[in-house]
Each structure stands twice: as C-alpha cells, then as structure tokens.
Amino acid sequence: MKFNLQVIDLSAALNHSIETNQSYADSYSVEIFADSIEPNVKISADPARLDQLMANLLSNAIKFSKEGDKVQIDLTTKTGRAIVAVTDHGRGIPQKDKLRIFERFQQVDSSDKRERGGTGLGLSIAKAIAEAHQAELTVESVLGKGSTFYISFPLIVGS
Ligand SMILES: Nc1ncnc2c1ncn2[C@@H]1O[C@H](COP(=O)(O)OP(=O)(O)OP(=O)(O)O)[C@@H](O)[C@H]1O
Ligand SMILES: [Mg+2]
C-alpha cells in the first residue's frame, strides 16, 4: 500500500466519510450521528487511505446494526492524540474473537459472508492503514449491546 501523508483536517475528513457512506446507512435504515466531532483537529494522513479506513469501520457498524439503530461517530483530543470512535448498537463481538477479527479472512460467524456480504478483509486493511499512520485501532464490545471501534492518531505537534 502506498501512502501520501499530508496535514489534514480530521474533523472535515470524518464528515466527508460520513457523507460517502450515507446511502449505505439509508439502505439499512440506520442513522449516523456526527454531532460530537471536535472541529479543526489536524493530523498527518493520506486522505484517500483515511477515507478507506473510515469506510471499513462505518460499513461494519452499519451492516451489523438493526433497522432503526443509531451509529455514532465521535472525535475528541486527549494528551497528544486524536481519538475517533465509531459506535454501534448491534450484536456485539464475543470476547474470544476481539483480536482475531483484525486478521485477514476472519469473520465471527460463518453466516456473516452469506448474510451480510464481504470476505473478512475490511478490518485487516483498516489495521494496516492505521499502522501506517502510527495510529492504534482497538475495539470494545458488549455482546448483544454493541461495539465501539477506536482509532487513536498522533496529533501534529504544536497543533
Ligand atoms: N461492528 C461490528 N459488530 C459486530 N461484528 C463485527 C463488527 N465489525 C466487524 N465484526 C465482525 O468482524 C468480522 C470481520 O470484519 P471485516 O470488516 O474484516 O470483514 P467483513 O465485514 O465480514 O467483510 P469485508 O469487510 O471484507 O466486506 C465481521 O465479519 C464480523 O464477524
Ligand atoms: Mg467489513
């Protein structure tokens, strides 16, 4: 994967990614909430790769939600990091699968491919993109209640 890093406004980039995935959310009758995105957060990123990373997290959050559910995107800053959170209220991820899903072709359920499409590559690509940005990609999840995926980027020093 090639990366073309530049200073970008992460807040604006997130709003753009949400717009791009809006029709996919509509097709699942899922509402995306983006009312807690801190403005003017600057990081070093490849805009196309960042969009791909967000699309992977958003598409998962949407397709594992139930009709009428909300997906929430947050952006906060804390001690030199910009933290993006993508939260859904879907089925959640079993504890034993929380690390495995970041590997290639790993899906929690053998029916995931059949029922929701996809090949189990999205999160492995997301992880590779995060790593190229010195960002950490992690998940917290409660089975039956939902999941939050976090990406923690280094803030540009002095910003
Ligand atoms: N938000 C989520 N809620 C519940 N399970 C999830 C969520 N995100 C990922 N998973 C689980 O992790 C698996 C791997 O996710 P990943 O994005 O890598 O693959 P995929 O979505 O199945 O296929 P692809 O991304 O290639 O279209 C999913 O199949 C699903 O079992
Ligand atoms: Mg996926």
TrEMBL record:
Q: Which InterPro entries match?
A: HATPase_C_sf, HATPase_dom, His_kinase_dom, Sensor_HK_Regulatory, Sig_transdc_His_kin-like_C
The EC category is transferase
Protein's organism:
Sulfitobacter brevis
Domain Histidine kinase residue range list: 1-157
Q: Give the catalytic activity.
A: ATP + protein L-histidine = ADP + protein N-phospho-L-histidine
Q: What Pfam families would the database entry show?
A: HATPase_c
Name of this protein: histidine kinase
**Which Gene3D superfamilies does this UniProt record tie to the protein?**
Histidine kinase-like ATPase, C-terminal domain
Per the UniProt entry, what is one GO biological process?
A: phosphorelay signal transduction system
This entry's Enzyme Commission designation comes to 2.7.13.3
Keyword Phosphoprotein applies:
yes
Q: Which UniProt keywords apply?
A: Kinase, Phosphoprotein, Transferase, Two-component regulatory system
Q: Name one GO molecular function term.
A: protein histidine kinase activity
The taxonomy runs: Bacteria, Pseudomonadati, Pseudomonadota, Alphaproteobacteria, Rhodobacterales
- Supply the PANTHER family for this chain: HISTIDINE KINASE 1, TWO-COMPONENT HISTIDINE KINASE
